[in-house]
Input
Amino acid sequence: FVKFANIEEDTPSYHRRYDFFVSRFSAMCHSCDHDPEIQTEIRIAGIRGIQGVVRKTVNDELRATIWEPQHMDKIVPSLLFNMQKIEDIDSRTGPPSSPTGGEKEENPAVLAENCFRELLGRATYGNMNNAVRPVFAHLDHHRLWDPNEFAVSCFKIIMYSIQAQYSHHVIQEILGHLDVCKRDSPRVRAGIIQVLLEAVAIAAKGSIGPTVLEVFNTLLKHLRISVDFELGDGRSSAGSATFSTASKENDERIVQNAIIQTIGFFGSNLPDYQRSEIMMFIMGKVPVLGATSQSLDTSHLGDLGTRRIQIMLLRSLLMVTSGYKATAITNALPAPFLDPLLSPSLMEDSELRQLVLEILHNLIDRHDNRAKLRGIRIIPDVSDLKIKRDKISRQDVSFMKKHGQQLYRHVYLGCKEEDNVQKNFELLYTSLALTTIELANEEVVIDLIRLAIALQDIAIINEDNLPMFNRCGVMALVAAYLNFLSQMIAVPAFCQHVSKVIETRSLEAPYFLPEKLFKDKCNLPKSLEKHEKNLFFLTNKIAESLGGSGYSVERLSVPYVPQVTDEDRLSRRKSIVDTVSIQVDILPGNNTEDKIDNTEEITFEALKKAIDNNGLEEQEKEKRRLVIEKFQKAPFEEIAAQCETKANLLHDRLAQILELTIRPPPSPSGTMTITAGHAHYQSVPVYEMKFPDLCVY
Output
C-alpha cells in the first residue's frame, strides 16, 4: 500500500475511497499483541499505512474527504496513542526534529510524530479545526491535562508544524476548550491554561490575528470564575474538613497564577501599540467605585472577592507593563487609564497600593533607573548612581500640567494610610524619585518640594492620628527624597540645608532617618511636639536657597492641598474630609465675616439651586457627548452644510450688532475714531490702517 501511495497519478480517481484503509490502519496502530516485537511491527505498519493515505489524498483539493471529522477522529488519536509512549523517555518539545533512518523504521513513537507533523503541515484554512479537535478529545479521554507534559508537547508540535498564519485557529480552539472545561478540577484548568501559554509563546513571534482581545477577555473571565470557586467553596464547605478546603484554595491559586503568567507573557510580547490597548482593556475590567459596566461583575463575591479580583487584575497589569517604554508619557498614561489606576477605591488595602505604585514605576521609568533607586536610604552622592535622563520634552511638560496634581495627590494620600509597611514607604520614595528624573522641570520641582513639606506636616501635626511608626516613616521618606532632589538639581545652598538637617537628625533623632528606622529596631519617641525646628526642613530656608539660583519660589509659601475628586465625595474614606476646609482657609479674602455670611446663605433654596445646577451640568455633558458623537459618525457633507449655514447666520448677526461707522481723519497724519454700536474704541493711528474705508467685524 505504501508503494501504491507513492505513485503519482496524472488524473485523480474520483470513485476511489479510503474509508476501509483508515479504519484498518487506525486499528493496527492500537495493536496489543502479546509478543512485543510483533506488536511494534503491527503498529509501525499501521502508522506507515496512515502516512500513505495522507500522502495519497491530502494534496487533491477535489477529493478532501480525508479531512472529514469521521476520518480525523480515527487518524489523530491513533498517532497520539503511539506518540505518548515516548514521552516518559524523551520529550520532544521543539521545532521539527530530524531523526535518523533507523529510528524512523524501528520506533513507532518517532514515526507517529513525523506523520503527525506531516499531516498538520498540509492542513489548510478550511480543515485546520478538524485536525486539532480530536487532540482535545484524546487528552480529555486519557486524562492527560494533569500532569500536562504530553499535552504541552503535543501543542508545541502543532504550533511548529502548521503554517504561521493559522496559529490563531489553534489558540481559539484552546480558548473554546477552556470554556467547555470551566467546571472541571482546578488542576485540569491550570493544565489547559499552561498549554495556552506555550501556544501563545510560539504564536506571539508571528501573527496573532484577531484573537488578541479574545484571549485576554477569556482569561479574565476565567480568573473571575476561579476566584468565585475559591470563595464559594470556602463558604459552602465551612462545616467540612479544613484540609480539603485549604487544598481547594491552593489549587485555585495555581489556576490564578497560571492565568496571570499567561496574560503577562502574552502582553509583554505584543508590539507597543497593541500593548497600550491591552493595558486599557485590563484596567477597564478592574472593579473600582464609579467604574463602567465593562468591569468584571463582583457583586456576588462581596468585599473579599472584589479585593481578590482587584489584586489579580493589577498583578496581570503589572506583568503587561513590564518593559514597556513609551516615547511620550502621555502614551503610557492616558487619562482613561490613569484615572481608574489612581482611584481611591484602589487605596483601601496596602497590597493594592503597592501594585498601583509598581505599575506606575513600570510606565514612568523609561531609562531603567528604578533598580538604582531600590530601597529607601540617604544617598551620600547621587552622581555615583549614574542616573540616565533626557531633557524634559514638551509632551511631558504638558502631561504634568494636566495630571501632575493626580500623581502628587496619590503620593500624599498614600502616606496617610495606617496600614503602611516598609515596602509602601520604599515605593512612595521611588515614585517621587522617578518623577523627578523623568518629568521634572523647574515648576514641577517647586511642586514636589511643596508636596514634601506637606508630607512633613502630616507627621508633625498628625490630624489623622497615625501610629508613631508611620509618622517617623513619613519623616524618613521626606529626608531621603529631599536629599535625592537637592543633589539632582544641584543648588549648593539647598544641598547644605538638607545635609545639615540630616546630620542633626543622625545625632538627636535617628528615628527620622530610613537606615535607622527600617533597618535598626530603634526606639520610637512618644511624641513629636517637643522636637526643635533644626530637625525639620523649613520652607523659608528652602525658598532662600532656591531663590538665589533663579527659581520662582513664590508658590512655596502656599501650602500644598490635594485636589478633591467626585469619587472622594462618594467614597467612605475620611482622608479627604478635612482638606476641603483647609482649602477654603487658604483662599485669599476669607475672613470670619465672610464665613458667617456664607453659613447664613445655606438654605433650602440654596441647596435646591445647587442640585439643579448639578442637573444642568449633567445636561451640558450629555450635549457635549452628542456633539462629539455627531462629528465622529455623521456624513461629512451633512456636517459641512450645517457649519456653512451657522457661519452665514453668524456673519449676518455680527453685521447687525456692530453697525460700524468710521469718521475720516482731518489730515493724512491724524487718527481715525472707530465707533461700533454703543462702544467707543480708542483712536487708531492712520498709518496702521491699510484701507481708507475699513469695515471691521
